[in-house]
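so my prof wants the structure for this chain in the tokens format not the other one, which i didnt know existed until like an hour ago. anyway here's the sequence
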Amino acid sequence: MSLKKKLIILNTTIMLGLGSAFALPSVKAESISDIQSQRTGIQSDISEAEQVINQLKKEQSKMNSQIAQIETTMKKNDEKIQETKQEVKDTEKAIDSLNKEIKALEERIAKREEVLKERAISFQESGGDVDYLEVVLGSKSFGEFVNRVGAVATIVEADQQILSEQEADKADLEKKQDSVEKKLQNLKDMELDLKGMQSQIKDQKAEMIAMKAKNEKKESEAEALKQSLENKDAGLEAQIASIRDDMKKEEDRKATEKADLDRAAQEVNASKPSSDESTKGEAASSSSPKAESASNSSKHSSADKPAASKPESVSKPSSANTGSAITAGYKYIGNSTYKFGGGRTASDIANGLFDCSGFVAWAYKQAGVNLPASTGALTSAGTQVSKSQMQPGDLVFFNTYKTDGHVGIYVGGGKFIGSQSSTGVAIANMSSGYWADVFNGRVVRVN
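here's what i got, hopefully its the right format
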């Protein structure tokens, strides 16, 4: 092959090599840019998924705390039920004893009536009724008259004593019967309240557990989505690494090829006559440096990763200042426990132990207003207004285990503050969910 032909082949090879050396890294760099753009979107989605998961975990923690409070309340309520059952047994024994006393009283009364009858008969003569005066005037002598007067006085005094005892026993009997009836009624009411309260607490626990299960499902789905996004991001990262590795190998191959071409060119130039020096110069000047390619490679290999987005802050709803009766209870939110019959002693109040009506009465007392501490009495503690006219500070009633079984203080925005069996003192939503379902529409404005 002639020298000229060798030079043509050599130059053509050099140009083709240099052309591919510039084209391939540029195409691959564009691919990296596209993939990096995809990663930016995925990483943003991962950040959002993490925010959702964190929020769900907070809600989960809150629900666990509420369930624990419900279980504590149920335990205390069970203890109260057991105490009441024991009190019922003790009262039944007392009732049996009272019934025996009543029976003994009735027997004594019956015996006294028999004595009085016998006394009356002893003063009768041959079928006729004779009163004490006739007995005395019927005496045949003064001595007999004296004796009869003494006898009659003794009998009259004895009869009066019997009659007095009779009346006292009858009054005692009526008192004992009234006491027994009231005690029985109080026990029946307490037993009804406790059973209704326990049923309500169990329903609230079941509702909370169902909400927790839904929350856990959402958290699981969010975790699965996050894992899927992270896997996809890792795949794209590996794809970028693979492209960069291919680019590096391509650059190394081109560098080796260029070195081989340079050596071949030097061999050809060495064998050319001196008259071809210009050709050698052209061949030397046609070989462009790799600085631009290396610069492009360096530029694309240093692509910045997107900064992780910060989770958005969760703003807490602000509560309007609706009066000292409402704000008085804020200090107990999150650190109180529902107690049946609580809030009526200094010890209960100091330890945050309230039932619903006890809390309402205490809260209004802080505002200088005395209210009764029972839901029944609170229904008439002010003026009835329609629910459409409801204002902060009004009393709101709910049909829980019985009609008007729960009461709270409206704070506005469809919410009320009260001592709930599941949470203790808390602000609850009465616009939806459980409390919306049991709100009976009774609203009392304290005068």
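also thought this was worth mentioning. Residues 18-22, 125-130, 275-322 have pLDDT under 50 and may be disordered.
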